[in-house]
Amino acid sequence: MADLADIAGDLAERDRAESLALHAARTAHPRPTSRTPADRCAGCGQPIPAARRAAHPAATRCAPCQAAAEVRRTRQHRTGVW
Ligand SMILES: [Zn+2]
């Protein structure tokens, strides 16, 4: 029969392994942040102009695609249709 120290040791080991796996996954596929701006627009796939990235470092779309997305979102909000 396992005593509490064995159980605690097993849980700590499992927790450590999960943390290491999560860290490895995040390192392999970092999410875009304001410090790592997206190079390409999420809408059209074209490069986001440097001026837009400078003005909005967290931008994930070019200006026309962002405007279109905002219009769609406003319409969806108004009509309730998603
Ligand atoms: Zn675009």
TrEMBL record:
<keyword id="KW-0862">Zinc</keyword>
<dbReference type="InterPro" id="IPR000962">
    <property type="entry name" value="Znf_DskA_TraR"/>
</dbReference>
<dbReference type="GO" id="GO:1900378">
    <property type="term" value="P:positive regulation of secondary metabolite biosynthetic process"/>
</dbReference>
<feature type="domain" description="Zinc finger DksA/TraR C4-type">
    <location>
        <begin position="40"/>
        <end position="70"/>
    </location>
</feature>
<protein>
    <submittedName>
        <fullName>Phage/conjugal plasmid C-4 type zinc finger TraR family protein</fullName>
    </submittedName>
</protein>
<dbReference type="Pfam" id="PF01258">
    <property type="entry name" value="zf-dskA_traR"/>
</dbReference>
<keyword id="KW-0479">Metal-binding</keyword>
<keyword id="KW-0863">Zinc-finger</keyword>
<feature type="zinc finger region" description="dksA C4-type">
    <location>
        <begin position="41"/>
        <end position="65"/>
    </location>
</feature>
<dbReference type="GO" id="GO:0008270">
    <property type="term" value="F:zinc ion binding"/>
</dbReference>
